[in-house]
Sequence to fold (219 residues):
Amino acid sequence: MKKIQISPSILSADFSQLGEDIKRLEKSGADMIHVDVMDGHFVPNLTIGPPVIKSLRKYTSLPFDVHLMIDPVHKYIKDYSDAGADIITFHPEATKNTQETINLINSLSKKVGISLNPDTEINIAEEYLDKIDLILIMSVYPGFGGQKFINRVIKKIVELDKIRSQRKLNFKIEIDGGINFETSKIAIDAGVDILVSGTTVFKENNGDLKKNIKILKQI
Fold:
């Protein structure tokens, strides 16, 4: 059985004590910290920017899995790299040149991710699959936490897992949106390696982070 990684989304954390919540996540078995960056333009919400990420960096040694939902994205990549991002994921629709953005992230010695919204087809990213570290499948429309899982994205995961196997590629498949104890199993069975979960990690079982992360990993 493959090792499933959990990347809890701090969008669901207590913003008045983000640093402490991040320390708790590390102690509870999280594999990385998922940071949702939204600009109120590419997606209908505003969240945090580089100064906040930089201030949080000292609270954990876990990788910061930073998902940039901003447009334009290319000119801000270095800011997020400097702030402490370890994985930088962007949407192809938010850059004029996907390959140039991949090259920039690589030049900063960061891992590269491409994210696909529920209505975005795989073909927009297929030619880059041998050049990236992960592909993030959105199973809700990005913008707000707590949304219902969109089942039709499972077909994308199955297809990506098949492509990965056929072409002997090493990218990870990550999923974000509506991930709970039931949908996580569906996603894992389809080929997902990394689960992003906010509401379930922070709210289920009276906020027992360790228990919730363990259940999501299907241990």
